[in-house]
Amino acid sequence: MSTVLEKMGRTVEEAISRALDELKVERSQVDVEVLDEGNKGIFGLIGTKTARVRVTLKETPGERVKKFLDEVFEKMNLNVQMVVEEDDKAVYVKIEGEDSGIIIGRRGETLEALQFLSCLVVNNGKGDYKKVIIDIENYRKRREDTLVKLSHKLAERVIKSKKNITLEPMSPYERRIIHSTLQNNKYVKTYSIGDEPNRKVVISLK
Questions:
Q1: How far, in Å, CA of 94 to CA of 1, rounded?
Q2: Who contacts 199 (Cβ-Cβ below 8 Å, separation ≥6)?
Q3: What is the per-residue pLDDT across 154-191, written as a single tens digit (0 to 9) for each?
Q4: Are 181 and 148 in contact (CB under 8 A)?
Q5: Of the four, 17, 34, 131, 173, which is 20 to 30 A from 161 by CA?
Q6: What contacts 24+ positions apart, CB below 8 Å, involve 167-171?
Q7: Could you report the per-residue pLDDT of 119-132, keeping only the tens digit for each?
Q8: Is-contact 184 155, C-beta < 8 A?
C-alpha cells in the first residue's frame, strides 16, 4: 500500500518540502496533489489561509515487480520465496522454493514469459527503460554452462563432419549464449533461422 502524507505550509512549496523531509525522498519520487493553494491574505495578516497538499510515495520498479509476481504466484498457488533488488539499470529477482521448477517451465519458457511480463509492468508508459532479470534456483547460470559446453561439442562435430547442425528452438537469451560462445571460433559460424517462438541457431563451417 502506498505511503500518503498530508502536509500544510504557508505556501504549496513549503508544504511539499515538509512532506519530502519527513519521507526522506526526492521530489521525483512522489506524486503531489494540491488540496488547497492557500491565501496570503491582506498584507500577509488578515484572511491568511494555509496551503495543504497530499503527497503519495511512488512505487519503485522493484516494488511493482514484486507486487505483480506475488499476485501471479498466489493465483498459481505456488509455494516460493522471492528476493528483489534493484539498481539504476535493472531489477533483479531471485526465486527459491519447492514449486520453483514449475516457474522455470520447459526449456525455461515460463521463466522467460514471466520476465517479459515483468518488464512490461515496470516500463509501460514510463521514461527510462529498466531491465528485469529473474533467476530461479540459479537456473540461468546452470543453463548457460550447459549451453557453452554444448556449443563447443557441436562445433567440433561440424568441423569433423563438414555438415551444418541446427539446434532446437531457443529463446533469444539462449541463442545469444550460443552466438557469443562461438563468435571467435576460427572454423565455424552461427546464424539464426525461423520465426519466434521457433527460431533456431545453425552452426556451420566458415
A1: 23
A2: 169, 170, 172, 175, 192, 193
A3: 999 999 999 999 999 988 889 999 999 999 999 999 99
A4: yes
A5: 173
A6: 167/200, 167/201, 167/202, 167/203, 168/107, 168/200, 169/194, 169/197, 169/198, 169/199, 169/200, 170/107, 170/199, 170/200, 170/201, 171/107, 171/108, 171/109, 171/112, 171/197
A7: 988 887 665 688 89
A8: no
Choose the CATH number for 141-205 among 3.30.70.890, 3.30.1370.50, 3.30.420.310, 3.10.20.880: 3.30.1370.50
Locate cell 496551503: which residue?
Answer: 51
Which residues lie across from 200 on neighbouring strands?
A: 193
At 160, list the grid cell: 569433423
Q: How far apart are CA 17 and CA 15, in angstroms?
A: 5
Take residue 120 and report the three cell numbers written for it: 512490461
Instruction: State the CB neighbour count (10 A cutoff) for residue 13.
Output: 11
Contact in structure between 144 and 171 (CB atoms under 8 Å) = no
